Amino acid sequence: MKKLFPVVMLLAMLAACGNEKPKDQNSSNGSDEYEVAETPKKVDEGKGIGEIKEVTLNTPLEQDRIGRGLAIYEMKCAACHKLDDQRVVGPGWKGVTQRRKPEWIMNMITNVDVMLDQDAEAQKLLELCLTRMPNQNVSVGDSRDILEFMRQNDGEK
Amino acid sequence: MKTLNKFVWGMAGILAAFTIYSCKPSGPSEAITGDAASKAYVAPGKYDEFYNIVSGGFNGQIGVYGIPSGRLFKIIPVFATFPENGYGYSEESKPMLNTANGFVPWDDLHHISLSTTNGEHDGRWAFANGNNTPRVARIDLKTFKTVEILELPNSGGNHSSPYITENTEYVVASTRFSVPIGDNTDVPISSFKKNFKGTVSFIKVDTSGHMNIAFQLVTPGVSFDLARAGKGPSHGWFFFSTYNTEQAYTLLEVNASQKDKDFIMAVNWKKAEEYLKQGKGKTVKSKYAHNVLNESTHMSSSEILEEVMQLDPAELKDIVYFIPCPKSPHGCDVDPSGEYIVGSGKLAALIPVFSFSKLQKAIADKSFEGDFAGIPVVKYESALYGEVQKPGLGPLHTEFDANGNAYTSMFVSSEIVKWNVKELKVLDRAPTYYSIGHLCVPGGPTKKPHGKYVIAYNKITKDRYLPTGPELTQSAQLYDISGEKMKLILDFPTTGEPHYAEAIPAELLMPKSQKIYRLEDNKHPYAALGEGKTKVERKGNEVHVYMTAIRSHLTPDNIEGIKQGDDVYFHVTNLEQDWDVPHGFAIKGANNAEILIMPGETQTLKWKADRVGVFPFYCTDFCSALHQEMQGYARVSAPNNNVEIKYSTGKIEDQITGAGQ
């Protein structure tokens, strides 16, 4: 783990440079109103960074969510994530709900660019896979459905 | 250059010999002022204030630039195929360029109209005209894509187009060349007066943007040049400049320049609508194409229509009136109030300004000097508000600011002349480098001009840029008009030859700019919505590959079982759902070039498998660190070699037991 730290720091610094906004406010012609506010750094409790703060999981699994989650998986995720533990482009999904908090998973899906720039765990995965996980334009509701499908894939009932 | 009568050069020489203009430009050095650079400077990472939607002339495209920086953002292919994104090459886009004459890969695009509501920019669509094979196109300003093209029957060349009414009820398209129309078109050219007719098409635009020809006015054989709709009090009327009212059919530079005055044609289109409702129109057989892009299937289709409705204004009174206008008028521009109509006689030494209210009174009083082929000609003085004296040489086009001023381009004397509409007084002149054609004030043709700048679009740039052989860049020049005097602040090169352009505030387009095509909404019949949906299917001698692309692999990337002579269709769905992540697709030897696929989109490349072998394909748009690995192979076998259809990605086979061995 210690060995990774300098690399992670380097990645974080590179990401920070990429995010830097132009400081020059002198131009009278350019308009400023379209700039996106910088996402503030969040304290990480293993929940990742993004709008998902708290997820309630129910048992038994919500079957309608699983069906929807599977359909989204097939359309938007399956090209890179297998359902076993085999890494292709991204990691296989087997065991992901045991490795990660549900909030982390949903933030990773819905806020991937910020996660890859700021979340240490996400950055470790980037270092491993070397392909940035794309933003697949998944809504928060859809990411919850995917999570339910992942739970089923991990053997929950 | 191309649209202008060479005669103006002759006139220039003659007039220059007799007239001395004190403000005539003497050289480039005098025009620039000290703070120019800071006014056009948009710092890295900052946005421009305006989008400038600029016609590309003979390249058949539209260029999208930022103002004030002059930076080029995008080229939108409209009437020309475009190697950059496969427009006119992909199976989905080919029908857009279909016409009654078949596939036309290149046309001449002159003018832009941005849609308006209540006479003000609404940011929905841009319209553009195809000059040579007469067509009107609609571009969606959410996607900056050509979404519809309508051909115009009975037209010899669609120059006087695509001007729009106040609420985008109609787009007009009127013929530059009168031609024989109807059943008998095999007539002697010398029978022009008898057999040649002009047409003015009124294209109805519905709320979703779809276009259809509501009616065509059949007019005497003249040339229509440009047009503008009335607005405010003159809403319901349309004004067209005409030339060649001499009805010449040879050596027009001399023979169409005989009369002191040609006409501005005033059309009461609300009256025409009434006649149409009363069933006074005549249905005429004519073939023309109507091409539409379906944004949910990502496919365009082309339909050949067979009929068009025509109205004859010589029979149906009170639709059309002619107003004499000196001399071969080019621009015909209506000021923001809707009261003043400016005719720019390109061979005239003055600019006449007509009054809409005087025109109405003249019509009511029947103040006519006669008729032209059965259509009343209003007395010049009865419609005239006044004349701008000695404005410059070769007035072409006029745009307006919000303060009652007009800006007229002077082709021959290479300058922009600012004048006050009500006072008819010249206020300022600014040289252009060189030979200005059109010009643009942001919002200039609307009821509420945004002002701030005037942009000149020049025909000649000799000595302004580093030379690039015989063909030099075309250019635009940006002037600050916020003060009393116009100040040149920037030169910037343009693609193609810019004719008309409009500029619209960034905030009207930017927030609704589309980022991706949602996979959930993709209804393309050959889409593979997810890697599990990929497949290869044979239908006779067609092979359909349902392929997906995502960073950084294509699925399937090993394809076998294609036979020599097959037509292979690669239907590539880009599974990305992030902004600005297109993938490309190319396969060796494709006669039909390449395609580019936007996130969530499906596009198809047809490939003739005309020889045996293994052919690489790959992604042509740098997409990720492993872009170079985004590739695959297609195997083509001899017809007698019995290889089954087979496809995969990521499957490693035993080298010896490979298929077909």
Layout of helices and strands:
The complex is a heterodimer of chains A (157) and B (661).
Chain A: H1 4-19, H2 63-77, H3 96-99, H4 102-110, H5 112-118, H6 120-129, H7 140-153
Chain B: H1 7-18, H2 36-40, E1 50-55, E2 61-67, E3 72-77, E4 98-99, E5 102-103, E6 109-117, E7 120-130, E8 135-140, E9 145-151, E10 170-174, E11 179-180, H3 192-195, E12 196-205, E13 211-220, E14 223-229, E15 237-243, H4 252-255, E16 261-268, H5 269-277, E17 282-294, E18 299-311, E19 320-326, E20 329-334, E21 340-345, E22 350-355, H6 356-364, E23 368-372, E24 375-378, H7 380-383, E25 384-389, E26 395-400, E27 405-410, E28 415-420, E29 425-431, E30 436-440, E31 453-458, E32 474-480, E33 487-494, E34 501-505, H8 506-509, E35 535-539, E36 542-550, E37 553-555, E38 558-563, E39 567-574, E40 583-587, E41 595-597, E42 602-608, E43 613-618, E44 631-637, E45 646-648
Please give the domain count of chain B: 2
CATH architecture of the largest domain in chain B: 7 Propeller
Radius of gyration of chain B: 27 Å
| Uncertain ranges of chain B | 1-29
**Which stretches of chain A of 5+ consecutive residues score pLDDT under 50?**
1-37
Biggest sheet features of chain A: none
CATH homologous superfamily annotation of the largest domain in chain B: YVTN repeat-like/Quinoprotein amine dehydrogenase
Number of strands of chain A: 0
CATH topology of the domain at 58-157 in chain A: Cytochrome Bc1 Complex, Chain D, domain 2
Order of helices and strands of chain A: HHHHHHH
Contiguous helical run count of chain B:
8
Judging from the principal axes of the Cα atoms, what is the shape of chain B? globular
Provide the gyration radius of chain A in Å: 18 Å
> What's the CATH class label of the largest domain in chain B?
Mainly Beta
Morphology of chain A: globular
